[in-house]
């Protein structure tokens, strides 16, 4: 079984995330890392391969530093990686990202399974998996909190807004997983050492046959016109409970007309 | 004026409040048309008419319900081809966002998700979104195609404007490719009797500090008529269902009042509640980062503070 896992290098949510002058996400002045939610997809892929046989390929689209996201996935146990990097990609929206990923996956070869996380932790749109499924013509089994792959079928459970659904599809399929699915492993020392020898290919847009005019900031179908930091909240009143904390809380609610 | 399509959020024809909100927004952009996917449109029509839908496109096709996302995208695509709308508005749910994503590729149109405001701007549409865990507000426009926008609940008060709601049936044959992912079972969520988390005016959430006992949280919530939320730590520990999780990977809420009990306030949780109007926290740890956000905080044990507050609220009401 060949599995491709799409991962993203994102600005660390613990740091001060902000924007560049061109209104794109600042990726240079804040530490980046493998999107936390992608670790669940990597773990899901490793579990499937460990239970049978096959190979896990990680693919990412991003600047040079995105190699760090790949490294983490290889340290966890993925077999090889593809890094699509090209200056023209800067400022690409979800639509262009899905185009680049789709072309990269086609070039890798037809996988049995394409796995992704629920969403990236920077854009948090959670639309790239569905766009990829549309582009690749694959059934989408998205946002599942369980996943079983057996006899050429992927089965998962999706925790929707009004109901929980059981979903199944024949392989090849695209699956996105939530953070409820597993507990991602930490890279072992052995894994860290082994990752150094694993093959990583770097592809440009030309390698994929993607026209640079189709991606990047100027080609994006949406445009961020302006950004503004949310005004800092004024420090509220904090009391220490000395037997009357609940009463004071209720008084606040009454004063604010919630009661 | 060009049509603006609104995907109707309904349960067997019972139209949800978000639909009235979206129709209200649609009226500021063009002529609203509702897109009703499913059966029992007769039950829905009066409400759609009341909020200004001139037309109601109806797609009643079992395949849309039996397979995941792709058929809904094909249904929307069929209506878009017929109506050539100025914009397509959908309630921001995970299912709708994915259908919108596929529709964006099919129609070569820009997609904006989780908008908190939508207004006409020149020939197009300008939207507002909250990003980076609520720490920034961005304004965006769509530069290609008819804008496809998913909108969060409670961003405008619904206002009525009677229209005809003329039914326009739309024929749809779902492609074999779209039938790739079949829904084999569906278990409706248990009804708690409490308001829906994302629509509630007040949310009371419990975290690690509850130690698994949510009873003081639930009692306080019921006193205020609030929805109950939970932090990821509480959900991961199995103390509360995932569907009640507030945070980056759970529900995003923006109520009038948010009460965090025994929640430290990790960035992932803050991402789901930081835009709440008024925030209250109760936590034993005075260093908990949640206190940076609050309008009112109590450093103390939720097991003594919440029952006392419940009693005091009941007394104040009496």
From TrEMBL, chain A:
Gene3D superfamilies on file: HUPs (3.40.50.620)
Entries under SMART domains matching the protein: ETF (SM00893)
SUPFAM superfamilies in UniProt: Adenine nucleotide alpha hydrolases-like (SSF52402)
Entry cofactors: FAD
Keyword Lyase on entry: no
Entry keyword set: Electron transport, Transport
Domain Electron transfer flavoprotein alpha/beta-subunit N-terminal: 22-212
GO cellular component term of the entry, any: cytosol
One GO MF term: electron transfer activity
PANTHER family, sorted: ELECTRON TRANSFER FLAVOPROTEIN BETA-SUBUNIT, ELECTRON TRANSFER FLAVOPROTEIN SUBUNIT BETA
Subunit structure: Heterodimer of an alpha and a beta subunit.
Function: The electron transfer flavoprotein serves as a specific electron acceptor for other dehydrogenases. It transfers the electrons to the main respiratory chain via ETF-ubiquinone oxidoreductase (ETF dehydrogenase).
Protein family according to the UniProt entry: Belongs to the ETF beta-subunit/FixA family.
Name assigned to this protein: Electron transfer flavoprotein subunit beta
From TrEMBL, chain B:
Subunit structure: Heterodimer of an alpha and a beta subunit.
Gene3D superfamilies found in the cross-reference section: HUPs, TPP-binding domain
InterPro entries reported for this sequence: DHS-like_NAD/FAD-binding_dom, ETF_a/b_N, ETF_a/FixB, ETF_asu_C, ETF_asu_C_CS, Rossmann-like_a/b/a_fold
Protein's name according to its UniProt entry: Electron transfer flavoprotein subunit alpha
Residue ranges of coiled coil: none
GO molecular function, one term: electron transfer activity
Cofactor note: Binds 1 FAD per dimer.
UniProt keyword list: Electron transport, FAD, Flavoprotein, Transport
Superkingdom, natural source: Bacteria
Residue positions binding FAD: 208, 231-232, 245-249, 262-269, 283
Function field: The electron transfer flavoprotein serves as a specific electron acceptor for other dehydrogenases. It transfers the electrons to the main respiratory chain via ETF-ubiquinone oxidoreductase (ETF dehydrogenase).
One Pfam family linked to the record: ETF_alpha
GO BP field: fatty acid beta-oxidation using acyl-CoA dehydrogenase
Entry similarity comment: Belongs to the ETF alpha-subunit/FixB family.
Ranges for domain Electron transfer flavoprotein alpha/beta-subunit N-terminal: 4-187
Reported cofactor(s): FAD
């Amino acid at each position: 079984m060949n599995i491709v896992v799409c991962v993203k290098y994102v600005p660390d949510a613990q740091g001060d995330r902000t924007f560049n002058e061109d209104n794109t996400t600042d990726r240079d002045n804040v530490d980046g890392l493998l999107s936390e939610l992608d670790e669940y997809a990597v773990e899901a892929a490793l579990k499937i391969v460990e239970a049978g046989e096959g190979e896990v390929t990680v693919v990412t689209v991003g600047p040079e530093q995105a190699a760090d996201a790949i490294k983490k996935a290889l340290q966890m146990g993925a077999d090889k990686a593809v890094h699509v990097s090209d200056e023209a990609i800067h400022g690409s929206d979800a639509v262009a990202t899905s185009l680049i990923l789709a072309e990269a996956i086609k070039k890798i070869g037809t996988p049995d399974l394409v796995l992704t996380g629920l969403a990236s932790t920077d854009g948090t749109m959670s639309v790239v998996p569905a766009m990829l499924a549309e582009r690749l013509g694959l059934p989408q089994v998205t946002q599942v909190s369980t996943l079983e792959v057996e006899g050429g079928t992927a089965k998962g459970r999706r925790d929707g807004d009004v109901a929980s659904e059981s979903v199944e599809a024949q392989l090849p399929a695209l699956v996105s997983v939530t953070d409820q699915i597993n507990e991602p492993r930490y890279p072992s020392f052995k894994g860290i050492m082994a990752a150094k020898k694993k093959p990583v290919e770097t592809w440009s847009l030309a390698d994929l046959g993607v026209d640079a005019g189709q991606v990047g900031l100027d080609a994006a179908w949406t445009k961020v016109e302006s950004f503004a930091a949310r005004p800092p909240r004024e420090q509220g009143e904090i009391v220490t409970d000395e037997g009357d904390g609940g009463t004071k809380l209720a008084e606040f609610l009454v004063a604010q007309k919630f009661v | 004026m060009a049509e603006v399509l609104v995907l109707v959020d309904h349960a067997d024809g019972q139209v949800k409040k978000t639909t009235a909100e979206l129709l209200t927004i649609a009226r500021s952009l063009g002529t609203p048309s509702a897109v009703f996917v499913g059966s029992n449109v007769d039950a829905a029509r009066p409400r759609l008419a009341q909020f200004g839908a001139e037309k109601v496109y109806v797609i009643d096709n079992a395949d849309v319900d039996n397979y995941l996302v792709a058929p809904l995208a094909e249904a929307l695509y069929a209506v878009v081809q017929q109506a050539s709308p100025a914009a397509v508005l959908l309630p921001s749910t995970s299912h709708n966002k994915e259908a919108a994503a596929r529709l964006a590729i099919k129609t070569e149109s820009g997609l904006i998700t989780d908008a908190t405001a939508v207004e006409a701007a020149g020939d197009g549409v300008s939207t507002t979104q909250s990003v980076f865990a609520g720490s920034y507000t961005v304004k965006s426009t769509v530069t290609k195609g008819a804008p496809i926008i998913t909108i969060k609940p409670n961003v405008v008060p619904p206002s009525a404007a009677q229209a005809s709601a003329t039914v326009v049936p739309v024929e749809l044959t779902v492609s074999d490719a779209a039938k790739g992912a079949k829904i084999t079972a569906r278990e409706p969520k248990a009804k708690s009797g409490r308001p829906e988390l994302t629509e509630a005016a007040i949310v009371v959430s419990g975290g690690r500090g509850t130690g698994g006992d949510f009873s003081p949280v639930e009692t306080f919530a019921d006193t205020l008529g609030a929805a109950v939320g939970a932090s990821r730590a509480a959900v991961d520990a199995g103390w509360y269902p995932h569907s009640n999780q507030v945070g980056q990977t759970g529900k995003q809420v923006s109520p009038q009042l948010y009460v965090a009990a025994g929640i430290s306030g990790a960035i992932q949780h803050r991402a789901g509640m930081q835009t709440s109007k008024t925030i209250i926290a109760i936590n034993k740890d005075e260093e908990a980062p949640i206190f940076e956000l609050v309008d009112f905080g109590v450093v103390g044990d939720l097991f003594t503070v919440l029952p006392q507050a419940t009693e005091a609220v009941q007394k104040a009401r009496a």
